[in-house]
Amino acid sequence: MKPLYKVYIADDHTLFRKAMVNLLRTFERVSEVKDAENGKELLALIKYEAPDVVIVDLQMPVMDGAETSEQIIQKFPEIKIIILTMHDSNKFILHMMEMGVHAFLLKNTEPDELEKAIYSVVEKDFYHNDLVASVLRKNVKDRKTGQRPVFQQAELTDREKEILLLICRELTMKEIGQRLFLSENTVRNHRVNIMDKVGVNNIVGLVKYAYETGLIT
Fold first, then answer.
1. Which of 36, 72, 109, 121 has the fewest CB atoms within 10 Å, i.e. the most exposed one?
2. Helices 130-144 and 203-212, interaxial angle, to 10°?
3. Which residues form the Response regulatory domain (predicted)?
4. How confident is the model at residue 150 (pLDDT cuts 50, 70, 90)?
5. Can you state the angle between helices 184-198 and 158-168, rounded to 10 degrees?
6. Would the CA dihedral through 142, 145, 148, 150 be positive or negative?
7. In CATH, what is the architecture of 154-212?
C-alpha cells in the first residue's frame, strides 16, 4: 500500500483556497488537508502538527510565500514546500530554489500536475517541471553574459554524471538502481558523493548545477 500524506495550504483568497482544499481531498494519497489564510497562520498549524507538504501562495498579506518558506526551511526542514504563483517570476523562483523550496506551480496548473508534484516532492525531494526548466535555462543565459556566477566545475565520474542526469529526470534511488543494476544504497552513496563534490545539500542544488554546467541543455 502506498503511503498517505498530510497537506496544508496557505492562500489569502478564500474561494480559491477552499476550492483547493476540496480538490486536494479528492487525491487518492492525500489523507488530511488543512488551510490557512496567510503564512503566519500556516506556521501556527505546523507547530501544532506538522504536515508532509505545504502549498504556499507566493503573494499573501501578513507573511508572504517567500518569508513563510524561509521560516519553514529553518524550523521544519523535513516539510516539503510547493509554491503557487500567478507569474513565472525568474527572480523569485531562482531565489527560492536556492533557499531550498521543492516545487513551483502556476495557479492555472492542471489538477493532475498538482497531484504529481505533491508525490514527487515527498518521494524525490523535488518536482522538475517546465516552469523550473525555463527559469534555469534563463539563468544559464544570464550567467553566460556575466550576470550570474557559475558553479565551480566538479570532477564527476561518468557514473556520477549518469546518476545525476537520472536524478534530474526525477527517478527515485530505487528506480536509478534498477536501471543501472546497482543497489539502492550504492546509488544513495553516489548521490552523497556528488553533492559533496558540487557543494550542495539538496536535489534542488544538483538540478541547478546540471543546468549551469551544461549537463542538461
1. 109
2. 50
3. 6-122
4. low
5. 100
6. positive
7. Orthogonal Bundle (1.10)
* The amino acid at 111: P
Return residue ranges of the chain for CATH 3.40.50.2300. 5-139
Q: Are 52 and 80 in contact (CB under 8 A)?
A: yes
Mean model confidence pLDDT for the chain: 89
Tell me which residue of 47, 49, 9, 60 sits closest to 30, measured CA to CA: 9
Q: What is the pTM of this model?
A: 0.84
Instruction: Answer for the pair 195, 205: CB distance below 8 angstroms, yes or no.
Output: yes
Indicate the CATH number for domain 5-139: 3.40.50.2300
Which residue bears the cell 556520477? 160
142 contacts 133 by C-beta, under 8 angstroms: no
Q: Where in the chain is the domain with CATH 1.10.10.10?
A: 154-212
